Amino acid sequence: MFEHVKHVTEKQKERFDGSHKMIDLVPGTTVMILVTEKQNKLDPKYKGFYTVVRKTAANTYVLKNEKGFLEPRNYPPSLLKKVSDKVLEQKNDFFEVEAIIGHIKDDKNNFLYRCKWLDYDESHDTWEPEDHFTDPKFIKEYWQRISEAPEGIKDINKANKKLLKDMKVAYSTPKENSSTKRKNYAKTAYQKKKRSKV
């Protein structure tokens, strides 16, 4: 019995290790955190940047944010993504968003957001795709502030429709299905026939 339990446990560990990449991050490494509670497709997959402070005995990581403050919880390596050197070289090109103040769709039907940058006037506003945001809160706050359906709402996926529904936005246009059309046609034909007999 003991041998069987040991064998099953080893197999489970092999399966777990095969599907979970265990990375070892040294203090000072820049990482991004996987967003586990995405409310809609507009939310970026990762948020960040964060710096590794240390590894705990439980194999989780203590992180600090860009302002130098510790994150309120520790993160397992499965939720962290190491930032490449190329991205780090471009890190100086990052600016802090004050607010999103508008949106349009590009030729591929993706949303672009007009950004008001912190400490810059409106002449520096730019149009940015969703994957340029390191924090999803600005996009969420924007949709909550405007409380209206954007143009092309019919093209938005179900997750976005749910988000807009939560904000009490009317977006749906009910359509007749074929059975309703048949019933209406049959009713009309019957009424015409009845009238002709009278």
From TrEMBL:
Keyword tags: Nucleus
Localization per Swiss-Prot or TrEMBL: Nucleus
Disordered: annotated span: 172-198
Keyword Metal-binding: no
One protein family per Pfam: Chromo
Ranges for domain Chromo: 95-154
CC terms in the record's Gene Ontology section: nucleus
SMART domains per the UniProt record, alphabetical: CHROMO
InterPro entries: Chromo-like_dom_sf, Chromo/chromo_shadow_dom, Chromo_domain, Heterochromatin_chromo-domain
Start-end of Basic residues biased regions: 180-198
PANTHER family attached to this UniProt entry: CHROMOBOX PROTEIN
Full protein name: Chromo domain-containing protein
Species, as recorded: Phycomyces blakesleeanus (strain ATCC 8743b / DSM 1359 / FGSC 10004 / NBRC 33097 / NRRL 1555)
